[in-house]
Amino acid sequence: MPKNYDVIIIGGGAAGLMAASVCAKRGKETLLLEANKNLGKKILISGGGRCNFTNLFASNDNFLCQNPHFFKSALKRYSPYEFLDLVESYGIEYVEKAAGQLFCKTSAREIVNMLESECKKYNAEIILNCSAQRISKDGETFSVTTATDTYESKNLILATGGLPIAQIGGNDFGLKIAKEFGLSITSVEPALVPYKLSESLLKKTSLLSGVALPVRIFNDKISFNEDLLFTHKGLSGPAILQISLYWNAGESVSIDFLPSIEIDNLMSYRRSHPKRSIDTFLKNNLPKKFVEYWCKRESLSLTDNLADYSNESLTKIITDLKSFTVTPPGTEGYRKAEVMRGGVSTDELSSKTLESKKVQGLYFIGEVVDVTGQLGGFNFQWAWASAHAAGLSIT
Hints:
Layout: E1 3-10, H1 14-25, E2 30-33, H2 41-45, E3 52-55, E4 63-64, H3 72-77, H4 80-89, E5 94-96, E6 101-104, H5 109-121, E7 125-127, E8 134-138, E9 141-145, E10 150-158, H6 173-180, E11 189-191, E12 195-196, H7 199-205, E13 212-218, E14 223-230, E15 234-236, H8 238-244, E16 253-256, H9 263-272, H10 278-283, H11 288-297, H12 311-322, E17 324-326, E18 330-331, E19 339-341, E20 362-364, E21 372-373, H13 378-393
Helix pairs in contact: 1-5, 1-13
């Protein structure tokens, strides 16, 4: 006879572990099923193995969703500081890199261990190497069938993540279950992902592989001041990952390679150094390799004195560097994407509890939901907040 629980949670990542700990702490008989042999695989590889576990400055502007109001309730009810309190209670040392971005000082393993300890402290049952193969509902009871057993519960939480990084378990299981229960799905795409470049452009930029520089990257929706990295496949770095969240196939993005320089800076430099060349000025503000590439691309003379250039010519040089436009033919896909954009439509879920409006007792949390954060710890904060909201509502 199947064992019955108050709640079954499928997925032992960030959202699943958080939900299990919240449910168990409230005295609910809780079962967590994880398909991998280890918990929190995505946590472990995030942030270069040190996990950017939250952002102290998380606000509504850091999240993308077809319903821009949906995520506000959960985020308001569980702030970054509340998760930080939990981290500090375990004595985990952390560092703040960029403004608000908190990373483990030593290892992301500490976050996984903390969440697992919270689950065990309150007697949540965890089963590893256990894939749900079929889910059904009869009356008020969900049945979850695995290769060896069937488990039942009144409530079911899907914390299955999304499609990125299949090698550590990324899949569309949660999306399939949502469809089976009649819930709609928004279009899904890889996000926070590097761009590919066209073959013709890549041939010219290949020598720049490994070169990084600060830029302002923008489109008609948003702009970011972050670092850009040239790679052997195209463009990466925080600037590219950020803008990719707001990009659709066929669209262009613009890059300002001189975000802190204006034409007046060059004019002033010419007055002080009229006999110097344009590449000397550029090398004071840009990596040498990039300047060599750009001067060749634009056929800029390396021997002419700045005094020989007209104001119009110098203005064009700076303008071109501040508004370089590229139309990527695509991204590097889910293999390199940090998150999935889109997912279970928020029209189908309660913003307060993350419960399905159609199927009582069915919840979706974390990445599988159509809520995606920018780079910088925001997606983990959504995982904690959405899991907390669902966990508190389990009856």
